[in-house]
Design goal:
It is a single chain. By secondary structure, the chain is mainly α. It folds into two domains: 1-104, no CATH class; 118-212, Serine Threonine Protein Phosphatase 5, Tetratricopeptide repeat. It has helices spanning 2-56, 60-64, 75-82, 87-102, 106-115, 121-137, 141-153, 160-174, 178-191, 198-211. The longest helix is centred in the first third of the chain and has 55 residues, at 2-56. The termini are far apart.
């Protein structure tokens, strides 16, 4: 009987310890949101607006501010590192990835895109598509192909899916992997009749048929 009581007390102690830790965790989370995250979000959004203005003007260096110019703003690169847990900090990673790609700094582009967390399915497709483009520019065709396929398959839609299947098909064709190329081209032909480059798809399929 004594042992049973001890066992019960021990179980209750563990249970209440877990409850206590959960309460502490929830309290810490709300404290973090109220006193750190909300003010940071506001500051980050203000910085994001500055950087976006430079991007819309076509001034990529200033939008990114990778050289940390003596200007009173952070740029996409600075926002993503200073405010990593905010929404503005997250989208800054995406913008930074695009800027680095345009500047020909493909490794940095891939690094920032991988850090970007995309909840929107279209944006997620674009993320992997840009990673694929960056690998293609670096002549790493295998990684480029892998990312194009991911981009195409995140969720089938009329916008991104045929574009990335098309890129995957062209890349496979350049690698002389004609069966894979045919597979991707046929996906477009069967499912996406209004694809912009549909005529090219037919031409490539005819050429591949002759090759095979």
């Amino acid at each position: 009987m004594h042992k049973k009581r001890e066992h019960l007390i021990k179980k209750n102690t563990i249970f209440f310890s877990i409850i206590f830790l959960v309460i502490i965790g929830i309290g810490a989370y709300f404290f973090f949101k109220k006193f750190f995250l909300y003010p940071s979000e506001k500051k980050a959004m203000k910085e994001l607006n500055y950087a976006q203005q430079y991007l819309y003007q076509g001034n990529i260096d200033k939008a990114l501010n990778r050289k940390k110019n003596k200007i009173n703003y952070l740029g996409f690169s600075g926002i993503s590192s200073k405010y990593p847990f905010t929404k503005a900090g997250n989208i800054s990673k995406f913008y930074a990835g695009i800027c680095y790609y345009k500047l020909g700094s493909y490794k940095n582009s891939i690094e920032f895109m991988k850090k970007f967390s995309a909840k929107d399915e279209i944006l997620s497709s674009v993320k992997y598509g840009i990673i694929g483009d960056a690998f293609a520019q670096m002549k790493n065709k295998r990684e480029a192909l892998k990312n194009y396929v991911i981009a195409a398959n995140i969720r089938e839609n009329e916008i991104t899916t045929p574009i990335y299947y098309y890129k995957a098909a062209l890349l496979s064709f350049s690698m002389k992997e004609y069966k894979n190329s045919k597979f991707f081209f046929q996906k477009i032909e069967r499912k996406y009749p209004f694809f912009l480059y549909r005529k090219n798809v037919k031409k490539y399929l005819m050429f591949i048929e002759n090759k095979l």
